């Protein structure tokens, strides 16, 4: 296996590995270290079915089993289908494009380590791939924060709320999402997350505060909190932290949900088909020990 870093500091390509086969212990550790170092890994020219993708993801931690996942291959509720394809008048997957910047599962007490996606069909126009996935580097964003900001926020938490993101999605043109019910709100209550956390693989500090879910900073007055969150979101969105992945059929893309935020670009039409398999890995292992 070879890990080839991208130019620009974020992302790397993984070559000379068949991810449809069980990972050796050495390859698993290599991938884990590379995930911490680069944030985003792309292994091109892969061919995995749902069971193989599930096995790959399960090496890195417990897979999320979303009870509301209506779009999954038979027998694999832990695998989600992301797609804009419609067959017999019914969608075959969740159309997740255009979600805005966020970090998956930051609204949950148990956070996610990584997502792993496998592209089966990539939308194209005039031969150009569409539907890029963009990433922002939260290791670098933390490193560049002014000392006075770090001092002011040290030890503080922000409240993350699933409903914030849900409501943003409801406001998008053409959305048919209903408001969350009181029962759904009860099952997904707001949770505090540390604004700075130590990354479980690298041991380095990251900025863990994203515009998709973060609502306010505990212990700050409303105006003070709003101003600081606006500053943090503007700071982390600088172009120098950005990496945009252009998909190709066969890509397996794995990204770090602790040290990056991401956004799915909605630049393709309904007649430009997209079909991707996805698993989400929760942060349930001792990654420092495994990466040592």
From TrEMBL:
It comes from the Bacteria. Transmembrane segments: none annotated. SUPFAM superfamilies: Clavaminate synthase-like (SSF51197). Keywords: Dioxygenase, Iron, Metal-binding, Oxidoreductase. Residues 10-279 form the TauD/TfdA-like domain. The keyword ATP-binding does not apply. The keyword Methyltransferase does not apply. Residues 173-193 are annotated as: Disordered. GO terms for molecular function: dioxygenase activity. Gene3D superfamilies: Clavaminate synthase-like. Belongs to the TfdA dioxygenase family. PANTHER family: ALPHA-KETOGLUTARATE-DEPENDENT SULFONATE DIOXYGENASE. This is TauD/TfdA family dioxygenase. The lineage of its organism: Bacteria, Pseudomonadati, Pseudomonadota, Alphaproteobacteria, Acetobacterales.
